[in-house]
Write a structure and sequence with these properties.
Elements (H helix, E strand, L loop, with lengths): L14 H13 L4 H15 L23
Helix pairs in contact: 1-2
């Protein structure tokens, strides 16, 4: 199994804050995790902290492997 490409860590949130995140994520058709990441990137950008662009998600089928034999 390849190593994870993202750092994971536990995060404790007030239930009302989590509910607001769920609503915002649903409105943007994102997971709560993706919504938190977007909000953190926006907040850092407002503070002038530059980050490398996020890798776009891989979509679609994997490429076909050439036939062997």
């Amino acid at each position: 199994m390849p190593p994870p490409t993202k750092k994971s860590f536990p995060l404790r949130l007030d239930p009302a804050l989590y509910a607001a995140l769920e609503r915002a994520a649903a409105a943007d058709f994102r997971s709560v995790n993706a919504e938190v990441e977007v909000l953190l990137r926006e907040a850092l950008a407002r503070r002038g902290i530059k980050l490398a662009p996020a890798d776009p998600p891989r979509r679609g089928r994997p490429p076909k492997e050439p036939a062997k034999g």
